[in-house]
Amino acid sequence: MTLADDTSVSLTLDLKGLLCPLPVVKMSKAIKELEVGQIVEATATDPGVMADIPAWCRSTGNTLLALDRRDDHFVFRVRRDA
Amino acid sequence: MARRLPGGQTMTTDATAPGTAELARAELEKRFNRLVGTSATNLCTHCGWCIDTCHVYLATGDVRLSPVAKADLIRRHYKRSHDWMSRVFPRWTGARRDLTEDELDDWVEAAYQACTLCERCVVNCPLGVETPQLLAAARGTLTALGKSPEILGQLADAAIAREEHLDMFSGYFLDQIGVLEEEVRDKLGDPTARIPVNEPADILYVPLSGAHTIVPQAVIFNLVEASWTLSMFEASNYAMFIGDIPRAKKIAMRVIAEAERLGVRELVVSECGHAYAAFRWEAPKWFGGPLPFRVRSIVEVLDEYVRDGLLPIDPTVNAEPITYHDPCNLGRKGGVFDEPRRVLAAAALDVREMTPTKAQNFCCGGGGGLVAETDWAEQRLTFGAPKANQIAATGATRVITSCDNCRHQITELGERYDIALTDVVSVSELLMDAVLAAKGPDLQEER
Question: What is the ipTM of this complex?
Answer without folding.
Answer: 0.88
